[in-house]
């Protein structure tokens, strides 16, 4: 039985949303296809109607999750105040504590390097995020915008990774605070 295209697209989107959330929370190897399908309210059977493999889902979910980052950039005011607000949101305790809803780069970059089918899509989206940051926010100069964006994004993602990794809340908050201070 064939389903209407709209219904199929909605199911596909649900699978991507749940996969992106679960992968960010537990990593690629920490989640099975069955768990993802169960989280969507679907059985395991239709998975292969949407994706060729778990690796294909991993690649698509990284693209999907990083698109959320791009959308968030576009929704932020492209001013010095917008940049400061963006930093406050990104380098916050709330973001630190919400791995499943947070930044795909901070949650999965270390794992992406071990997944050949995911590296290409990750690279493409990362380049898009760098370009979006470079063109969206005011930097010291147009010529320096790309480099400034790479340095800022690397600091932000690195700070989030470290803040999530330590078992000392005060130190974690200090990492976030110092990263914010260094980027404004």
Automatic annotation (TrEMBL):
Residue range(s) of DNA binding per entry: 32-51
Residue ranges of domain HTH tetR-type in the record: 9-69
SUPFAM superfamilies: Homeodomain-like (SSF46689), Tetracyclin repressor-like, C-terminal domain (SSF48498)
Organism: Tunturiibacter psychrotolerans
Superkingdom of origin organism: Bacteria
Spans traversing the lipid bilayer: none
Protein name as annotated: TetR/AcrR family transcriptional regulator
Pfam families: TetR_N
GO MF entries: DNA binding
Keywords carried by this UniProt record: DNA-binding, Transcription, Transcription regulation
């Amino acid at each position: 039985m064939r389903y209407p295209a709209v219904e199929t697209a909605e199911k596909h989107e649900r699978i991507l949303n749940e996969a992106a959330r679960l992968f960010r929370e537990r990593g690629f190897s920490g989640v099975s296809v069955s768990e993802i399908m169960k989280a969507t309210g679907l059985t395991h059977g239709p998975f292969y109607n949407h994706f060729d493999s778990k690796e294909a889902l991993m690649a698509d979910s990284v693209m999907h999750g990083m698109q959320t980052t791009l959308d968030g950039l576009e929704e932020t005011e492209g001013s010095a105040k917008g940049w400061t607000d963006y930093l406050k949101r990104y380098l916050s305790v709330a973001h630190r504590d919400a791995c499943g809803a947070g930044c795909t780069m901070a949650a999965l970059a270390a794992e992406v390097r071990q997944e050949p089918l995911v590296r290409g899509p990750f690279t493409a989206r990362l380049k898009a995020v760098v370009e979006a940051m470079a063109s969206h926010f005011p930097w010291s100069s147009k010529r320096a915008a790309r480099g400034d964006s790479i340095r800022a994004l690397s600091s932000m993602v690195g700070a989030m990774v470290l803040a999530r990794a330590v078992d000392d809340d005060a130190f974690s908050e200090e990492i976030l605070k110092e990263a914010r201070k260094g980027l404004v």
